[in-house]
Amino acid sequence: MLTKVITISTILSLTLSANANEDITPYVVGGVDSKTLELPWQVYIEIDKNGSRYACGGTLITDTWVVTAAHCLNENDLRDSFTAVKASQVTVYSGGIDRSNSGNQSSNSLSKLIVHPGYSEVTNTDDIALLQLSAPAASPAQAIKLMDNGLQIDADIEFKAGIGNNLVLSGWGRTSTDGQQSTDILQKSAVTGISDDSCAITWRWAGREANYICANAFNRGSCNGDSGGPLIWQDKNAISDRDLGYRLAGVVSFGHADQCAKNNTPDVYTEVSTYRKWLVDTIELSDSYQAPDPLFTQDIFEVSSEPMEEKSGGGLGYSLLLLLTGLWLYRRS
Asked: What is a single Pfam family found in this protein's UniProt entry (predicted)?
C-alpha cells in the first residue's frame, strides 16, 4: 500500500489535460484564506525525490527547529518500508501565506533531519519528526510554544465536554472532500476536539489514545498536502499574554480514505504533549532548547463556520489506500 502524497511535478502535467485554468496544488477542506502574519509559525515543506517534489506542512517551535510528520520524510513509497530522506532533499519555506512563486516566503535549507525512533509505517504511531534549519528563520516567521501535559489535561476536558471550534488547523493541502481542488494561499479552519474514548471507538483502537488527538467539524478538516502541519489550541488562562495562549497541540497525521473531512470520522493528529520531552531532549543534543517568547496579535479563532464551496473541474483522482486497525485511512501528505 502506498501513502497518498502530493507530487507537484505530476500535478502540473495532469493540470494541463484536466483544465488549463485550474491550478491543482495543495489546501485545507472547508477553510478560509489566512491573513498575513496571522499564522507565523506555519511553514511549507518540499521534499525532492529524484526530481519529483512532495509537499507537507510544519511548525516552527524555535527559530531553527521545525516539527513535522515522520511519514512526510519517507524516501520509499512502500507502506511497510521506511527510509528517511536526506536533509539535502528538504527545503522549508517560511514567513508567508502564498506558496506560489509570487509569494514572499523565505527559503531555508536543513542541517539536520531527525525522525522519531519509534515511528511505525504500519501503525502510524510516533508519527513525528524534527528538522533543524541551517540558519534562523527570517522575520516575520515566529515560533510557537509546545503543548505540555498540564495544558493537555485542560484540553481533554474541553474535548470531553464537546466544546466546539476549540482547535485551529492550517495548511496548503487540498480543499475539496474529493481531494481535487486547491489554492496557493494558506488556509485555516476551526475544528472541534474529540474525546480519546470516542476517537478510540470510531477508529477501533485501544491503548494508544495518548499518541493522538482527534478532531472534526462539519465538512471541514485536513486533506492531502496538510500532513505535518499544526493543530493549535488556546490556553484560556493565557489569552492576555504576548502569545495569546496559543500552543501547538497536534501534528496532522491521517484520516479516512473515503474522502477528506469525512463528517462521521475524526481526523487524527500526533499529540504533541506526549512527545514534548522527546522534542526538547532531541533539540538539546544539538542546541540548547529555550521556549520561544513570540508576540502574536491576531485572533486565529475568528474563522467562518461555513465551509468553502466545492467547485467542479480539474481532474486528479486518487486510489492509494492505507490500512490501519481494520479501517481504510490515508495520511495527509
From this structure: Trypsin
| pLDDT at site 223 | 85
What value does the mean pLDDT take over residues 100-129?
A: 92
Region 151-171: what's the mean pLDDT?
Answer: 95
Give domain status of residue 309, yes or no.
no
CATH number (domain holding residue 187): 2.40.10.10
Whether 227 and 74 have beta carbons less than 8 Å apart is answered as no
Measured CA to CA, the distance from residue 167 to residue 186 in angstroms comes to 17
The phi and psi torsions of 27 (rounded to 5 degrees) equal -165, 170
Residue 144: Cβ within 10 Å count: 24
Of 310 and 214, more confident: 214
Q: Residue 183 corresponds to which cell in the numbers above?
A: 489554492
Where residue 73 falls (left for φ over 0; alpha for ψ -120 to 50; beta otherwise) is alpha
Residue 2 lies in a domain: no
Residue 271 is predicted with a pLDDT of: 97
Q: Which domain holds residue 197?
A: 8-297+316-331
Q: Is residue 80 within 8 Å of residue 67, measured between CB atoms?
A: no
What does the pLDDT read at residue 204? 80
What is the number of domains present in the chain? 1
What span, in angstroms and rounded, lies between the C-alpha atoms of 71 and 54? 12
Residue 37 lies in a domain: yes
Residue 305 covered by a domain: no
Q: Tell me the mean pLDDT in the region 301-306.
A: 64
Q: pLDDT tens across 139-150, in order?
A: 999 999 999 999
Convert the pLDDT of each residue in 124-138 to its tens digit.
Answer: 899 999 999 999 999
Q: Which residues pair with 58 in a beta bridge?
A: 43
d(CA 32, CA 21): 21
